[in-house]
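Next comes this protein.

***
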Amino acid sequence: MGDDILSVGVDIGTSTTQVIFSRLRVENTANYFTIPRATIVDKEVVYKSPVHLTPLVNESLLDGDAVRALVEGDFRQAGFHPGDTGTGAVIITGESARKENSRLVLEKLSGLAGDFVVATAGPDLEAIIAGKGSGAQAYSEQRACTVMNLDIGGGTTNLALFDQGDVIAKGCLDIGGRLVRLAPDGTVLSISPPAAAVAQTIHLPLEVGKRAEPAQLEALTGEMAHLLEQQMGLCPQQPLLRQIETPGATPCVLPKAVQAICFSGGVADLIYRAEETDPLRYGDIGVYLGRAIRQSRLLSAFRLVEPEETIRATVVGAGTYTTTLSGSTIHYSRDVFPLKNIPVVRVSAGEQERCFQGDSSLLETKLRWFIHQSDAEYPALVLPGKKSPAYRELEKLAHSLSQAAAALLPPTAPLLLVIETDMAKALGQCVSRLAPERTVVAIDSIKAGSGDYLDLGRPLLGGMAIPVVVKTLIFG
C-alpha cells in the first residue's frame, strides 16, 4: 500500500520560467519490526508547461506578481488547484538569482501550494542541479567515467564535472544566448557587459541601436565557443576567460581529463538539433551560439552524451523521501521546534576527520561556500559520525563545530547537527558547553545528503525523540 502525492516544480531562470507537475508514489519500504520509512518508489510527470519568458519589471527586477500569475495560469491549464499539491520546489537560478527581489518572488510563490521547498541557487549549485537533471551524473556513475555537463542558458554556462557520479569540479561562465538582445531586423537592443567584453577583445563594433550583421554575430558567438574550448583544455587559456567568470562561482579547474561532454539548458536544443532556420527567432544570439558550439571542437574532442533533458534539465519538484524518528540519544539546548525546510550540508569523512583533530578549516570553507551559493541563513550539518569515539576526540570535534559556527553563522542561528551514528547526545552537550549562548540541536540515526531539506517536528516521548522529514529534490 502507498500514497500518491502531487509535486510541483517551478524553475525561474535568466530568460525562461517553467512549471512541471509530477505525481510521486510513496510507499513504506521498512519491514514490520522497524520504524516506518516512506520512500519515493515512482515518479510520473503529468504536465509540462510551455517555456515562458521570465517576467521582468526592468533589467534588474523580477516581476513577482507576473511570475505568480504565470504559475497560477499553469495550475489552471494542468487542471489542478493549489490545494491539490502536497509538496514542491521553487528554484531561482541564473541571473534571476542575482535580481534584487528574488527573495520577494520566492515569498509570493511559496504560499501557492502545499509545503514548498524554496531556494535561490547560486552558480555552483545550479551547475550541480543541471548536471543531475540532464542525466550527466547518472551517466558518469553508471559508466565509471568523467562527464562534463555544460548547462547553457540565457545568461550563463554552468559547468559541473562528474567522476563516477561525484562532483569534482564546478564553475560558471557568463556565456549565454540572451547576452545580446536583437530586434527582428537585427538591430541591437541590449548588450550585457560580458558580451561587450568579448566583442571588444575581437575588435567587433557592436552598438545598441545599430543593426548587427550576421557575420558579426557569428564572430561573437564563435569567440564564445572558443572560450568554452579553452575552459575544456583544448587550447591555451586567455585572460578573457577569467574576465567572464560569473561572480560568486568557483573557478573551474579540471583535476582529471574529461572523457565525455553533455549539454543542457535552452541553447542545448540548438546544439543537438540544428533545425532552426531563423537565427533571430528568439530575439537574441541563442541560435548563433548553438551553431557555433556545434561547429567547434567540443563535439569532436569528447564523447558526446545525449541528455535525458535539455531545457528541462532542472528540478521538477520535491518529495518526502524519509519520514522517521531521531535516535533516542539526542540533545537540544532550547526548544526551537518546529523547524521547516532546512537545507542540508553533508560533511565528508575526510572533513569530519580534520574536525576530530581540532581543525575546522575544511568545514568552514564548505560552510562558507554553501551559505554563499544557497543564500541560506543556516543549514543542518550531517556528519557520518564514529563508533565509540574517545571523549578527547568528541571535545576536539565539538571545538571545531563551535568554531565554524562562530565564524559563519549569525549569533541567533541554531547549530543543527545530524549524526548518522549514535553519538548525538554526548556531542551536543560538548558543543553547548563551549557555546552556551547558541542554540544547539544534535540528533542521530538520520541519513540525509547535500541537496536535501529537513523538517524537525516537536519533540516526542518526553523529549526523547524528534520526528524528522527528509525531503529530496526530484529531477526531470
